[in-house]
Amino acid sequence: MSNDDFFAPDKRNRPTLRKVASALSLWLGLTLLATLVVHFVIVFALPSIGRGVLIDEVIPAGQSAPRLYTGQAGEPRPSFRYADDRKDSVYCSFDLRDGAVRVAGSLDVPFWSISVHTLSGLVVGSVNHNAASGGGLELLVMRPALARDLSAAGAQLPRDALVVEMDGPLGLVRISGLATYNALRPALRDQLAQMQCSLATFTFAAPDQDQDGSQTPQGPATPSGPPSVPQPVIRPDLQPAGGEGEQ
Amino acid sequence: MARLLWLLSMALTAVVAGTVSAIYATQTLRPTGTLHIGPWEAVRAVGDAAADPYAHAFIASSGQLPPGSAEGMRFVALASNTGQPLTPDCSITVSGFVEIARLWTLSLAQPSGATLELGETGSGVASRLALHSQDIVYNADGSFSLTIGPRPLAPNSMLIGSETPISLVLHVYDGAITSVPESGEASLPIIDVASTGSGCG
After folding, report:
1. Which ipTM did the prediction report?
2. How does B133-150 read in b/e, with b if 16+ C-beta sit within 10 Å?
3. In the Cβ-directed half-sphere of B173, how many Cα atoms lie within 13 Å?
4. What is the pTM of this model?
5. By CA distance, what is A114's nearest residue in B?
6. Can you tell me the mean pLDDT for A28-55?
7. A119-157 in b/e burial notation, b at 16+ Cβ within 10 A?
8. What residues of chain B lie within 8 A of the CB of A7, using their CB?
9. Closest Cβ–Cβ partner in B49, B53, B71 for A126
10. Which chain A residues contact residue B115 at CB under 8 A?
């Protein structure tokens, strides 16, 4: 290879212009390639590195989730740099490894919304007051595997609940309201503090019974116990999708 | 030795150029789908899973929670309609209509678009940093005119004293946001910068 010739300590043949140009071209080409690799590695790594920004901002060390951060009575309330100053918000951090999270409530303002975010800031889903049923909104945030398990087990979700599926376990819910006048903002903050953010519980339909009294076999994801009694949520890490008995 | 130097120089150049270009691209370049209406600029669906990797990296590294599509849209203006920087020791006039939303807010912000604190307004005379669409007086035709500067006289005004350039952030809510055309033909307020006679601009 001519490149080897270029590096070879050959004192008799000094590098020709052609060899120098060849080595320079090779250097430029490989450098460009390596630059692109470094560029894309950094771009794709930033969301993972940047997760810490939101974690530090919202979830103080030692705090458990889900928890609503209202900013009232000395509680922490994160203040994001690009937020609308004129809008009031509360945040709820959650860990879907503990089960599904239920966010519910209503606000008496002309515009309010709920959004679900990953810890790197991406919006997973958002709804506003126009989607409210009976004046309130109810959101269930869960992992896709849990949604499948609940469906297979015949879980009875609240009729008007909106289900948001999210792959990652950690995230944030932002509940925001826009008060018409500044004088109404304290009342809005009180209403925001009353919003619910907690682990969800589900009721399950009664197992179908045959005429001889035997029960129709159910998937093992179905919790035992009487129907219409809140059951613990099925943890996807304990009941992995595709595992034994999964449908 | 020459081969080692050759490789080292290549690696060093690649690391430096790759890092600088990645930071520049994620902090400066606008994501695909950026909407321009006059001096106003908004990024559609920032934060959605479909956002490009650069927008994703920018959001993650800046520690922001962008609005979801049901939450509205955020427009940022760094200059007037004629391209003059928004320096609050000048008189900045925002006038016209916000046709695309029923509810909106207008905020003063840092040039990066980050929230401006009252302590960051130079002389500290800022009266308020954000206005609601129902906080202002409208003209008979439904238009409005808002003045921002050190000595605002108009009925709708925001008092601020600073030599540091600012940006204007318009959050629009509960409107036909998704129907804003790609061409940006929808109407947003016009921004003018005028001298106040104290050496502005």
Report:
1. 0.80
2. bebeeeeeeeebbbbbbb
3. 27
4. 0.76
5. B71
6. 84
7. bbbbbbbbbbbeebeeeebbbbbbbebbbbbbebbbbeb
8. 2-3, 6
9. B71
10. 79-83, 85
